[in-house]
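Let us practice reading a record.
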Amino acid sequence: MLIEDAQGRVLAELSQFLGIQTNNFAEYSGLLAVLDYALAHGHRRLRVVSDSELMVKQIQGRYQVKSPGLRLLYEQAKEKIAELEKFEIAHALRHKNRDADRLANQAMDRGMGKLNG
């Protein structure tokens, strides 16, 4: 996950190997990491852009969360979102989200022992 300020300056790059999980689990884990970062660093206004249409529409309330495995993550995210002053989430096509893909690939490589760090 790439975290930028309102002027587009990079504040943080977050990536973590999650083991073998679904892409939806990874998307929710990334959202929770961003929410944790924002709350811990006093950022009360947040705009999230994700290439996961499913997660975006679930957080927006447009889709139900039917997966029991995602339900807890969804509920945790909604609790953290409620602590913010303002929250927006939008969908972006994967090719427009290259930095996030790069960080995800780095985390997977680290987890598989392909990179140090």
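A brief commentary: The chain has a mean pLDDT of 80.
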